[in-house]
Design goal:
The N and C termini lie far apart (36 Å). It is globular, with a radius of gyration of 18 Å. The protein has a five-stranded parallel beta sheet with strand order 2-1-6-7-8, sandwiched between helices. Strands 3-4-5 form a three-stranded antiparallel beta sheet. The protein has one domain: Rossmann fold. The protein is α/β, with parallel strands linked by helices.
Length: 211
């Protein structure tokens, strides 16, 4: 990643695919890896089409133009938001267990995903980190439509995107292998990243448990 980052900077990866990319970023920069889990709010008859997104703290980002065009009801948005918020909390428990969430105040945060299509979930992630008092928000992704990069620059302090093609159809078209990442892979990468940053602590834990 071009430029320098603070020593106490942190990578917040968006599961699941973003954790694969986020692990590599954190590994190269030798900084902490953790998660941020916004969820897309899909259209009523097309769940893959994002009409907005919801963040971990319940903040909802809505594409008002698209909602109006599709005539999506307020009750649908409310119900779907609550359903996605429940899924966010389930994933946080599954992936992080009882580990305390890192303090982000005055830290440089690098939000990573495997790519950006509409930008809804990334915008929700940025909004969620801003309210935690972060110093700087950097968005880092391998691929994003060129028009999307311009929009993201309005939300983040820096945007790093390796490839911004037009026309842009789907994130998967830019990967040779875009198979679904499973929950255990996410957990394993988080644990591996913690071990790399704190090898002595991990070794002591193994000794204490007789591993």
């Amino acid at each position: 990643m071009e430029g320098s980052v603070d020593r106490d900077a942190i990578v917040l990866a968006i599961p699941r695919g973003g954790v694969i990319v986020g692990y590599e970023v954190a590994h190269q920069l030798k900084i902490q890896l953790d998660l941020i889990i916004p969820r897309k709010i899909g259209a009523p008859d097309n769940p893959e089409l994002a009409i907005g997104a919801i963040a971990e703290d319940g903040a909802v980002i809505i594409d008002s133009g698209l909602v109006k065009y599709l005539e999506v009801s307020k009750s649908y948005i409310s119900e779907e938001s609550q359903r996605q918020l429940a899924e966010i909390r389930r994933r946080l428990r599954l992936y992080r267990g009882d580990a305390p969430y890192p303090n982000l105040r005055d830290r440089e945060v690098i939000i990573v995903d495997d790519g950006i299509a509409t930008g809804s979930t990334m915008n929700a992630a940025v909004t969620s980190t801003r309210v935690k008092g972060v110093k700087t928000v950097i968005i880092a992704v391998p691929v994003c439509p060129g028009s999307g990069v311009s929009e993201l620059k309005k939300e983040a302090d820096r945007v790093i995107c390796l490839h911004s093609p037009e026309p842009f159809y789907a994130i998967g078209q830019f990967y040779g292998d875009f198979d679904q990442i499973n929950d255990q892979e996410v957990i394993d990468l988080l644990n591996q990243s913690r071990t790399e940053l704190n090898p002595d602590k991990h070794s002591n834990q193994q000794t204490e448990t007789g591993a």
